[in-house]
Amino acid sequence: MVCNVLEYLESAKQTFPEKCAFADTDRTLSYQQVEEASKRIGSGILNKGIKQGAVVVFADRDLESLLAFLGIVYAGSFYVPVDINLPEKRIETILQITVPECIVVRKKDRAAAENLFNGEILILEELMESDIESEKLQEVRAAHLSTNPLYIMFTSGSTGVPKGVVVSHGSVIDLAEQFNDTFSFTAEEVFANQAPFDFDVSVKDIYLTLKNGATMYVIPKSMFVMPKKLMGYLEENHITTIIWAASAISVVCAFKGLEKVKLTSLKRVMFSGEVLPVKVLNYWKEHLPNTMFINLYGPTEITCNCTYYVVDRSFDVEETLPIGRAFKNTRILLLGEEGKEVKLGETGEICVQGSSLALGYYNNQEATKKAFCQNPLHNLYFDRIYKTGDMGYYNERNELVFTSRKDHQIKHMGHRIELAEIEANVNAIDFIRKCCCIYNKQQEKIVLFYESEEPRDVEIINRLHEKLPKYMCPNKMHWMEQIPMNAHEKMDRVKLRELFSEV
Ligand code: AMP
C-alpha cells in the first residue's frame, strides 16, 4: 500500500533511472537526479535539527522548487509554496499563519527572506550539497502516516486573511489513483505544466508524473502571452496531456493559437477552475477532433477535483458544460437549505465526501469547522463532508451541472478570490467609511464602490498593492457619498451592479 508520495518517485527511479522526470526550456532532470537531489535536501534539513512541520518555500516556476518540495517531504515535513512575487505584507501574513520553523529559499532571495522572517533561513543551493543521511531518512519514513500533511496551499479568505488548505499524502495518492483508473495514464505521458506551484492545479502534473514514471515540462509563464509559440513548444516536446486552468485554455482561443500548429501527440485536454465557455471548447475541438476533452471540477479543499465530465457530445454556445460525475471513492451530496438532500433536478449546495477531503485550514479551527462538518443527514458516527459553497443540479442525463456560487467568491483571471477579502482590506484603511466590491464577469473587472469624505482612488489602490496580489486589486473604483442600502439594511449589490453599467 502506497502511503507516502515519495514511493512514487522511488518506484519510477527504480524502473527508469535515466528517464527525464522534470524539464524546462533549458534543462532536464532524470528520475535518478530528482531522487538524489531531494534526498540531499531532506538530509540537509534534518541535519539542521528542524522539527517536522510546515516549511515555507519561496517558489518560482523552476525545477529547483520541485526539488525543494520533495526534499522537505524526505525530511518528514510538509511544504508551503509561496510565490516570491506576492506583496511583502501578504507573505508576512502567510508566515504569521504558518509559523514555520524554517523557510527554504534560493541564494538570490536570501536578502528578501531576511527582511520577512526571523527564524532559520535555509538556502536551497547549500542544502543540495548535503551528504545523504540514509539512516535518518529511513527513520523518518518508518514513522510516516498517510494522514500526514503533504502541502499547504493558500487561497483567498472571506475574513480578510488568506486560508491555508492542508492536504495529506493520502488525499494526493487517492487523487493520483482515481486519475489513473479513469484516464489510463502510462509512462509514455508527457505533461505540460501551466499552473504555478502555489496553485493546486499543478499538484496533478507533479504527482501524476511521478506515479507514472512520466515526464513533465514546466512551461515558462511568458509563453502564455504568445500562444502560437506555446503550441509550437507543446508539439516539439510531444506533449500528450495538458491539465490547465480554464482561463489558460481560453487564452489560446482568444489569440487563435491553434490555427497554424498541429498538435499531433496531444491526447487529452483537461481543464478546471471555472466554467469553460462552450465557444472556447468548440474552437479547440474543431482543431483537435481526435483529442479527448475533460471538464474537471472541484475546490482545493477536496484535493483538486471531485467530479469529471468527458465531453461526449456537441454543445451549442448557449449551453453549459456539465461537471459530470464523481470520481470513484468520492460522493457528492446536493444539500438544500435545511441540510436535506434536494430532489432530483433541484438545485442544492455541492457537498463532498471521501478520502480526498483536506485536513482543514491550517491554524484556523473556526474556518475549518464551518466548511468541514458532520454530514447533516445523520448523527451516528463522525462522517465529514466539505461544503463547497457551489450550487449545482443533476440534468436529465444524470450529469451534475454547476450553476453559481452561494457567496461572493469569484474566479478572476483564473484566480479564486473572495470579494470579502478585498473589502476587508479596503475597510482597514482609516478614511474609508464603507465599501462594497462587485464583479463584472463579462468585462472581467472587479469594481470597488467606496464611501469616504472625498474620492481617494490612487491612495486606496496604492495601499491595496502593498497587501494584495495584483490580480486581487480592483480594476475600477467608484467613490460614492453614500452606498445604497437595501430593505434589509445591507449594501444593495443589485443596485450597484446596475450602476456599474453606467460607470
Ligand atoms: P480553486 O480552489 O481555486 O480550485 O477554486 C475552486 C472553485 O472554482 C470551485 O469551488 C468552483 O466555484 C470553481 N470551479 C472549479 N472547477 C470548476 C468547473 N469545472 N466549472 C465551474 N466552476 C469550477
Describe the structure.
The mean pLDDT is 95. Helix 1 (6-15) crosses helix 2 (31-47) and helix 11 (246-254) packs across helix 12 (278-287). The protein is of the alpha/beta class and 503 residues long. It is globular. It is built from 16 helices and 26 strands. The N and C termini lie far apart (59 Å). Helix content is 32%, strand content 26%. The strands form seven sheets. A five-stranded mixed sheet has the order 11-12-13-14-15. Strands 16, 17, 19, 20 and 21 form a five-stranded antiparallel sheet that branches. Strands 2-1-10-9 form a four-stranded mixed sheet. Bound molecules: adenosine monophosphate (AMP). Adenosine monophosphate (AMP) binds next to strand 13, strand 20 and strand 21.
